[in-house]
Fold:
Amino acid sequence: MLRGDVDGDGRPDSVTVRWARWADGRCAFYLRVSTASGGVYSRALGPWTLEISKLDVNARVRPDEFGVFPTVEAIVDLGGRGNLVVLSVGQGAASLGLSFFGIAHGRLHIVRVGRAKTVWPSATVMDITAFSCSRGGPLREIGLGIVATRKHPYRWNFSSTTYRRRGSRFVAVAHRGLNGSHARVFAAAKRAGMRNSTLTGCSLARQPRNWGGV
Structure:
């Protein structure tokens, strides 16, 4: 459980992921926000939200079968009324899928990043994708990757897309890119706000483990 103001009244609310014992995968988990005023918001986390295999959608599941997700990872301030819940919804070989949820018009809903319901911060030897932010926004997607050619065997690429919260969506408002040496593009990424852990700049509360590290 994490606590932070999600409904925008200035008081901390309680955010948890609940599960229905032995329910089918399509309805086993749900996100719950209990507000300081006594209100309760709930949203089912089915295959339209979680990365659930086809075999698990109609099968009874146990939470420990899903490993690290779904989990409330953080509560973040990225502008707009109320703060956002960051939920882990899937896991890859070197990434953790994260989705943003907020309260609007009396319900919990996903706040998309562009068209995407889920973002995937990751780090490998060849590529890094990270999300940096500051209190009140913006949200920045930072990408680093090697783009070597025969003529330029040590060339790397840096890219940064800046998003601003607009209602139930993050809208891209700026983009930049740079090719160069490893040192040059990593310096550009640090200036753009890349840290050792994703979303530290805007987190009001977060799980103690280091998730989304780069």
Notes: Residues 2-206 form one domain. The longest helix spans residues 182-191.
